[in-house]
Amino acid sequence: MQQDVTPDTLAVDLDGTLLRSDMLFESFWSALGRDWKSGLATITTLSGGRAKLKSQLVAASDVDITLLPYNEEVIERVKAWRASGGRTALVTATDQALADRIAAHLGIFDEVHGSDGHTNLKGAEKARFLTEHFGERAFTYMGDSEADLPVWEASAKAITVNAPPKLRDAASRLEPEVEHIGTPDSNHRAYIKALRPHQWMKNLLVFLPALAAQQFTALTLLQSLMAFIAFSLVASSVYVLNDLLDLSVDRAHPRKCKRPFAAGDIPIAQGTSLAAGLLGGGAFIAAFLGPAFLMVMAVYYITTLAYSLVLKRRAVVDICTLALLYTLRIVAGGAATAIPLSVWLLAFSIFFFLSLAAVKRQAELVDNVKRGKLDVSGRGYSVEDLPIIAMMAISSGYVAVLVMALYVNSVNMAELYSAPAMLWGICFILLYWISRTVMIAHRGQMHDDPVIFAVRDGTSRTCFVVILCFAFAAALF
């Protein structure tokens, strides 16, 4: 039934307009991160239409609407419209239940209309609804996509939000008055940031088998370089998926909330295709390095996916998994170059990276203590676990140094190094660095990732240079 409303009614879209995100994808990734089985099961309801899918996703997800990346410029515009005596309505293709929660949180809308599980309130369907509800050309509509063109055509005034030039031109050719708010951001830097290229430092571990075996042929270096590129692409694919699964967790974090997907700098609708493209590129390069390397890459990807979906919420299991993922990079380097890996190198790697993984959790717990939180959001720890995690970090680090010391004293060293006694210097440097790293984490001065901290920390870089000096001295003198 048509309602008598003045032409001063402002109807506002949600996805991409009021919100710098899309609630369909927000709900999907939240459901998948909450319970991957039920999250995937919701896809089967797509045969019943997008409205039914949205309703099922809302039931399966747990989106924190207070942390969503809202468009402050649009919010201020809506507030100003309402303050001047106009009426405001949130009209969205998002499910009604979720739209109601968002409207209640913001408190700036007089009425809310969303999809009801049967009708997807979008495009021509939204135009029809608004015309029947408010009257012919009796409302102003604020939107952001091509799907809004039929709605703008039926409105008294069209307002575009961050619309690209092509869409602006299309809206301007319509009969109603048109106003443009904002411009699409040039987000190339955001896409690069989403790949986390600084994390690619970890993938330098694929060069370690060649360095340890002192095989520096052009072919070996080329194979290691290809392995590095393949690993970086696949790792970035996982980082993108992890960010999508951790949207709510990241938004609750003082630093991670600035990640591109959490902040709304990149549409999360593009996240899946970006992750798939990176994975495909990495697999393509990996195929040139032989089936053994491709198998290691597959194990790495599956393990990382399992970590993102399940294992990261399991106490201790998550730390062991992180240590395994680091070690797999070394295994991948050996598979790419066909260089056999020594038991000593693998043992050292497992204990050393177990230490770094524990330091990572230690830093998160210390940060939570400072913020007054009792547990780590999305993890299986509480602040009471901090002493145990710190002990795991330092003890496994010291065991790694012990393995290094035993290796230095093994009979194999004389075959590779002319002065193996010089390698004892590496043991002393590692003892110092591990002890200092755990101490810094204990004081709350550690970056979330100890590897990135080491790259940026001047003392750590000095330790690395000294370790290289000892290694070269052992090989050359």
Task: Describe the protein.
- The chain is an alpha/beta fold and 477 residues long.
- The protein contains 22 helices and six strands.
- It folds into two domains: 9-181, 3-Layer(aba) Sandwich (Rossmann fold); 188-476, Tetracycline Repressor, domain 2 (Orthogonal Bundle).
- Helix 7 (149-154) links the parallel strand 4 (139-143) and strand 5 (157-161).
- It is elongated and about 90 Å long.
- The model is unreliable at 1-6 (pLDDT under 50).
- Helix 17 (343-371) runs parallel beside helix 20 and helix 21 (450-456) crosses helix 22 (458-476).
- The termini are far apart.
- Helices cover 60% and strands 7% of the residues.
- The protein has a six-stranded parallel β-sheet, with helices on both faces.
- Separate helix tally: 22
Oligomer: single chain
Q: What's the CATH H-level superfamily name of the largest domain?
A: UbiA prenyltransferase
Reported CATH architecture of the largest domain = Orthogonal Bundle
CATH top level class name of the largest domain: Mainly Alpha
Cα-based radius of gyration, to the nearest Å: 27 Å
Main sheet overview: 6 strands, parallel
Structural class: alpha/beta
Across the major sheet, the strand order is 3-2-1-4-5-6
**How do the SSEs run, as a string of H and E?**
EHHHHEHEHEHEHEHHHHHHHHHHHHHH
Low-confidence stretches: 1-6
Taken together, the total number of domains comes to 2
Q: Quote the CATH topology of the largest domain.
A: Tetracycline Repressor, domain 2
Number of strands: 6
Principal-axes shape call: elongated
- Straight-line distance between termini: 92 Å
What number is the mean pLDDT?
89
Proportion of residues in helical segments: 55-70%
Strand content: 5-15%
